Amino acid sequence: MAAELFYDNDADLSLIQRRKVAVLGYGSQGHAHALSLRDSGVDVRVGLPEASTSRVKAEEQGLRVVTPAEAAAEADVIMILVPDPVQAKVYEESVKEHLKDGDALFFGHGFNIRFGFIKPPAGVDVCMVAPKGPGHLVRRQYEEGRGVPCIAAVEQDATGGAFALALSYAKAIGGTRAGVIKTTFTEETETDLFGEQAVLCGGASALVKAGFETLVEAGYQPEIAYFECLHELKLIVDLMYEGGLEKMRWSVSETAEWGDYVTGPRIVTDATKAEMKKVLGEIQDGTFAKNWMKEYEAGLPKYNEYKKADEDHLLETTGKKLRKLMSWVDDKE
Ligand code: NAD
Ligand code: MG
Ligand code: MG
Ligand code: MG
Ligand code: MG
């Protein structure tokens, strides 16, 4: 099933230009969306609490800042770009009462809609425009006349024009310059959670740690183990990013390539894949979302415990020391 792609010519910018847009939040995504919407000729206001430290930044960058409730009251398109675990609270306190039939509620990730933490009224369009990159890249690409590919979805099409409006919004932040892929809230949310847990964040961290510990426990120096199991990973991932597994294998030695074929499947085994399927099941049935929200509302006790344990891990203390030797890496910390 190939994805459906949409470009600049498929999107009508005037749809979003005729609306009043509120961007709630001014973090990674919020700042990029608000500034690029403004530069695309859209009437945009940023919604931030009185106490928010981001207020000054948004105002310095020429945006009008009001409270989230004022922004929602003024606007007929409301993009929620506050952290996922606080979106339901912001929605209840500042957005819900200001929604009128024909308004549109926008998201950058489907979590709260997919798992029912936010339940918008029937008369409102519910859309998603999610750039496939961090906000700072989204903004930089826009300014350079390019764009970051986006995915777009409609959960509820009350007006009959929800997808066209989502494409118009995506055009205003540069997304249709690169290409917009149509998805659903369910597909985006479930694949995003699975990817970050099983492969990108969870899988990669666990793999690096286990490899590092194996070498150190066998008596090798932690500094050498750090280079072999963490530092060099970037070179490998860069090659995969540029040209898939094929380019990575073309670039490494034949010995490394042979080791890849014979050892990889001994590390990520059928049992690992069976566990991945269990993880996916717990994402799909809402278990993960329910437990995460419970942890967040309890004040993040386990989250902080896990964070602390890894901060004190020899992998991390070794890395801190070694990165100081590499000026080009250390600069970024
Ligand atoms: P962020 O943490 O960078 O920024 C959140 C912003 O919300 C901050 O400006 C913060 O001050 C503000 N905020 C916090 N509590 C608030 C409240 N109660 N009322 C109003 N504002 C409040 O968040 P982000 O990474 O930009 O994520 C926003 C959304 O975009 C999320 O749904 C996320 O899943 C999605 N998303 C993020 C990325 C990414 O690369 N960061 C990519 C795609 C989608
Ligand atoms: Mg309104
Ligand atoms: Mg993702
Ligand atoms: Mg995510
Ligand atoms: Mg080597």
From TrEMBL:
The keyword RNA-binding does not apply. Pathway: Amino-acid biosynthesis; L-isoleucine biosynthesis; L-isoleucine from 2-oxobutanoate: step 2/4; Amino-acid biosynthesis; L-valine biosynthesis; L-valine from pyruvate: step 2/4. SUPFAM superfamilies: 6-phosphogluconate dehydrogenase C-terminal domain-like, NAD(P)-binding Rossmann-fold domains. This is Ketol-acid reductoisomerase (NADP(+)). It holds the Pfam family KARI_N. Mg(2+) 1 binds at residues 192, 196. It is an enzyme of class 1 (oxidoreductase). The gene is ilvC1. It catalyses: (2R)-2,3-dihydroxy-3-methylbutanoate + NADP(+) = (2S)-2-acetolactate + NADPH + H(+); (2R,3R)-2,3-dihydroxy-3-methylpentanoate + NADP(+) = (S)-2-ethyl-2-hydroxy-3-oxobutanoate + NADPH + H(+). One of its GO terms (cellular component) is cytosol. It comes from Streptomyces mashuensis. Residues 184-329 form the KARI C-terminal knotted domain.
